[in-house]
Design a protein that fits this description.
Blueprint (H helix, E strand, L loop, with lengths): L2 H19 L1 H20 L2 H36 L1
Helix pairs in contact: 1-3
Length: 81
């Protein structure tokens, strides 16, 4: 397994562990889903599709930032070991 692949797997494990165990993350997820349902019922199909495209772009940007921060943390931890 290459170093990049090891880092990616470690990032995935860290994110999964956080999402599954953090009460705040679970509460935010419920709140987002509730708001999305309300929005979907209030807007046209075209507006909903625009919202989904925006949401996908924002999520991709945020995930990239989070992954880079975790990788940096992992690298820093290895240097200290």
């Amino acid at each position: 397994m290459s170093e990049m692949t090891k880092d990616e797997a470690a990032v995935d494990r860290a994110l999964d562990r956080f999402i599954l165990t953090d009460a705040g993350a679970r509460k935010l997820k419920r709140n987002v889903l509730r708001a999305q349902r309300a929005l979907r019922e209030a807007v046209s199909k075209k507006v909903w599709q625009l919202y989904l495209a925006l949401e996908e772009a924002v999520n991709a940007r945020d995930l990239n930032i989070i992954e880079q921060a975790i990788k940096l943390g992992l690298k820093q931890g290895r240097k200290r070991s």
